[in-house]
Amino acid sequence: MTAGAAAANALLVNLTTRFIVSTAFFTVARLGVADALRDAPRSPADLAATVGADPRALARCLGALAAHGLFRELDDGRFALNEPARLLCRDVPGSYLPYALQVAGFFDSAAAFERAVRDGGTPFEHHYGTPIFEHLAQHPALGAHFDGAMQALHGIETAAMLEACDLAGATTFADIGGGNGDVLAATLARYPAMRGVLFERPAVLERTRERLAEHPAAARIDYVAGDFFAAVPVRADCYYLRHVLHDWDDAACRTILGHLAAGAPRGARVLLGEALLEPPNQAGIGRDMDLVMLQFTGGWQRSAADFATLLEDAGLDFVGVTPTASMISVVEARKR
After folding, report:
1. Average pLDDT of 248-260?
2. How far is residue 175's CA from residue 148's CA, in Å, rounded to a whole number?
3. 16 in a structural domain
4. Which residues are catalytic?
5. Is pLDDT above 80 for 23?
6. Residue 29: inside a domain, yes or no?
7. Domain assignment of residue 39, given as a range
8. Does the structure show a pLDDT above 90 at 244?
9. What integer pLDDT is reported at residue 141 of this predicted model?
10. Are residues 253 and 158 both part of a single domain?
11. Is the pLDDT of residue 111 over 80?
């Protein structure tokens, strides 16, 4: 077998079995293995007795995950936390566990993926019968959990955006579709003279208002409930949309941006925090997130050129793209 044939075979094996590795990951997350290892390394038998698992099966899962860089297998057969595994613990700064559990909870909808590729639509909607955001609105407990999952996945991006983008000239910062308010709270903490606006659906806004009630910047936050498909009745000199447009198709994005532009004052900055789609044949988080959007929302990831077209169509002048130290880049435009 040639080296090229061997590499091709290895790629196909990896693609075929990757979902099983993900299933092992979801399983140890649900079992709480990382929390059981917080104090010290432990043997598979000891761990299994604590989390309620078969020792050999658990050891095999952890051995495979350690080979992928999650957990660390010691020479004596015990397992220990490494830096990625520590983020699977509950109640640690930057915990990834809520997002892992969120995806695990919706994993069964992946069975409809082939149907969606053949016939169109979204696997999540095929499986559950409603679009994901309607489903979350109908199940408030899931909605609250979703807020935590988004914080777990995207929380690191907030500091990265603030380090990369100078917002010192803005007097009012409006977070459109700002979810749990993490971005707005961090931005107002960094700029003490700035006021903030959080625009969200009523049910989300109620949760966020309660969450931020004791925040030092609470008195500088205005809450505006609404639907950005109907209107964006917010005036600010800087607007921010993080991972909003990737949830929607181009027609919906034009509607959202058009409503935002209609109410924005001339010269206002519009910042989009998005994982940009990589060029053809180039692997990266943008390509993987594009499949996540296909699975759950029906939207898609876009290139910088795609965003420039959407922004220009909405009456906004494309300015450029600022990379950050996280998965997102910040696409900037101004109201003409």
Report:
1. 97
2. 17
3. yes
4. 246
5. yes
6. yes
7. 3-92
8. yes
9. 85
10. yes
11. yes
Q: What is the CATH number of the domain that holds 50?
A: 1.10.10.10
Q: What total number of domains does the chain contain?
A: 2
| Alpha-helix residue ranges (DSSP H) falling in 89-227 | 97-105, 113-119, 123-128, 132-138, 140-164, 182-190, 202-211
What is the C-alpha separation between 99 and 181, in angstroms, rounded? 17
92, 120, 135 — which closes off a domain?
A: 92
Query: Residues near 284 by Cβ (< 8 Å), separated by ≥ 6?
Result: 278
Give the contacts of 20 (CB within 8 A, at least 6 positions apart).
none
For Cα atoms 288, 289, 292, give the angle at the middle one, nearest 5 degrees: 100
CATH of the domain at 263: 3.40.50.150
What is the C-alpha to C-alpha distance for residues 102 and 230, in angstroms, rounded to an integer? 29
Between 141 and 49, the higher pLDDT residue: 49
Chain-wide mean pLDDT for the chain? Answer: 94
* % of the chain surpassing 70 pLDDT: 100
pLDDT digits (tens, 9 = 90+) for 66-102: 999 999 999 999 999 999 999 999 989 889 999 999 9
E strands in 4-132? 72-73, 79-80
Residue 124 lies in a domain: no
Q: Which two tokens stand for residue 110?
A: 């992946």
Residue 88 shares a structural domain with residue 183? no
> In this predicted structure, which of 150-154, 167-171, 177-181, 286-290 has the lowest mean pLDDT?
150-154
| CA distances from residue 30 to 56, 62, 191, 289, 332 in whole angstroms, order as listed | 18, 13, 39, 23, 39
Instruction: Quote the tokens at residue 94.
Output: 């930057």
pLDDT at 267 over 90: yes
What does the alpha-carbon distance between residue 106 and residue 124 come to, in Å, rounded to a whole number?
8
Query: Looking up tokens 């590729």, which residue turns up?
Result: 117
> Average pLDDT for residues 107-127, to the nearest whole number?
92
